[in-house]
Amino acid sequence: MDLATARHEFGEHGCINMSIEASATFTVTKPVIMPKFCTDELVPEQGSFIYSRHFNPTVLNLNCCIPASRMATISTVLMQLCSSRGHVVASGCLYGGTQALLNHFLPRFCNITTTFVDLRAHEMVKDAIVEGRTTVFYLDSMSNPTLIIANLPELCRIAHDKGVKVVVDNTFTPMILSPARLGADIIVHSLTKYISGGADVIAGTMKKLRLKVIYLGLEEHPDQSLLKSMANENYGFGGILCLDMETEEKANQLMNHLLGYHATLMSCSGSSTSSEMNAEEKEMADISPGLIRMSIGYSGTLEQKWTQFEKALAQI
């Protein structure tokens, strides 16, 4: 596709921003035209639309600018940078969908293999890179959900010294970290998190709970000093924290009591976003069965959030 012809600079009525098309179906005025959609004689790139599952003007223009999802982005990047029989070195504490892509899909369909490493063990990272074969070092700037911080300047230096491209998932979050300034070659994001502006804000801490809490704002977090050395100023520590309820049953009980509180989102990572990881992979990533990832919402006061949360905990 020629993006120059597929993408319009202005809306259909001359507006600066593209018009948003709300219709799911489009008119076909003559029956003889319908078969031409099925044989690709009439295509969206030529301004011909029939049904939004195929394309509508809004989706087409967005698709010319960005991929459909973070996983589409990650897949595209890896398959572009790695040839068949290629090799990737990756963090052992990746987002579950990325882990599944590297562990199952790419080896089976693209003959691309991955070695997973502990990001804090820099010698392990160095030893895992096979010069002449490894083309990509892939990691999350902040691991999802366990919030392990990658020492991006040092890890990028190690990779670049061996001629390897560094790809960083910066979903948590572009406000706090700018990997491009720290040495990363390619940065990917999930638009449903901070960039969308719809669900996350800078949050306070829950330090006195008698539960294991993972939050970068706590002084006892092992990577807090590292984050401070790399972070953009005045953006705090992010709106993501984790609670370890120890068992999946307790995690589900807590989430049931908070169900309907739409401003704060939560999930039991081991049975949802990281469910495709086996027990050994979860242990390596430090994801326990009862680990809950919470995205603190921006509506309401901190006191309101805390009161509701205390009530839910009291019922466990």
Written overview of the protein:
There is one protein chain. This protein has 316 residues and is α/β, with parallel strands linked by helices. It has three domains: 3-65, no CATH class; 70-194, Aspartate Aminotransferase, domain 2, CATH 3.40.640; 212-314, Aspartate Aminotransferase, domain 1 (Alpha-Beta Complex). It has eleven helices and nine strands. A five-stranded parallel sheet has the order 2-1-3-4-5, sandwiched between helices. Strands 6-7-9-8 form a four-stranded antiparallel sheet, covered by helices on one side. Strand 1, helix 5 (96-110) and strand 2 (113-117) form a beta-alpha-beta unit. Helix 4 (70-81) crosses helix 5 and helix 9 packs across helix 11. The longest helix has 15 residues, at 96-110. Keywords: Pyridoxal phosphate. One of its GO terms (biological process) is transsulfuration. Belongs to the trans-sulfuration enzymes family. GO terms for molecular function: carbon-sulfur lyase activity; pyridoxal phosphate binding. This is Cystathionine gamma-lyase.
Short description:
By secondary structure, this protein is an alpha/beta fold. It folds into three domains: 3-65, no CATH class; 70-194, Type I PLP-dependent aspartate aminotransferase-like (Major domain) (Aspartate Aminotransferase, domain 2), CATH 3.40.640; 212-314, Aspartate Aminotransferase, domain 1. The protein has eleven helices and nine strands.
Q: Radius of gyration, rounded?
A: 23 Å
SSE order, one letter for each helix or strand: HHHHEHEHEHEEEHEHEHEH
CATH superfamily of the largest domain: Type I PLP-dependent aspartate aminotransferase-like (Major domain)
The CATH architecture of the largest domain would be: 3-Layer(aba) Sandwich
Helical stretch tally: 11
CATH class of the largest domain: Alpha Beta
Report how far apart the termini are.
Answer: 55 Å
Main beta-sheet strand count, sense and barrel state: 5 strands, parallel
Average predicted confidence as pLDDT: 81
Structurally, the number of domains stands at 3
Number-wise, the strands total 9
Which segments are poorly predicted (pLDDT under 50) over 5 or more consecutive residues? 1-8, 197-209
Might you state the CATH topology name of the largest domain?
A: Aspartate Aminotransferase, domain 2
